[in-house]
Amino acid sequence: MNVSHATVHPVEDLPTTDGGGGNPPRVRMKDYSGMPGTPGGLGLRISQFLFAVGALCIMATTSDFPSVTAFS
């Protein structure tokens, strides 16, 4: 039986930006509109909720809604 064995790999130190290594500072990702935690993201979630409520209302007003097996 061929079994794999666990291996621990060493973790390298993160580069510092205090002038010693010559590495440029790390650049963070830009904040895009619609990201979680932004007003645009909140607006998108609210609109998603409103569209879901509208879709449920439309489905509930049909005559065969109670007979659909997914909702019984």
Quick take:
Helices cover 31% and strands 0% of the residues. It has 72 residues and is an all-alpha fold.
What does this structure look like?
This protein is mainly alpha-helical and 72 residues long. 31% of the residues lie in helices and 0% in strands. It is built from one helix and no strands. It has one helix at residues 39-60. It is flat and about 70 Å long.
Cα-to-Cα separation, first versus last residue: 49 Å
Please describe the biggest sheet, giving its number of strands, its sense, and whether it closes into a barrel: none
Radius of gyration: 26 Å
Which overall shape is indicated by the principal axes computed on the Cα atoms? flat
What is the assembly state of the chains in this entry?
A: single chain
User: What value does the average pLDDT take?
Assistant: 76
Q: Which blocks of ≥5 consecutive residues have pLDDT under 50?
A: none
User: Which sequence of SSEs, written as H and E, runs from N to C?
Assistant: H
Percent of residues in helices comes to 25-40%
Q: Proportion of β residues?
A: under 5%
Tally of strands: 0
Q: How many helical elements?
A: 1
The structure class reads: mainly alpha
Q: Notable features of this structure?
A:
72 residues; flat; mainly alpha; 0% strand; 1 helix
Topology:
Layout: H1 39-60
Region (Disordered): 1-27
Subunit structure: Homodimer and heterodimers.
GO cellular component, one term: plasma membrane
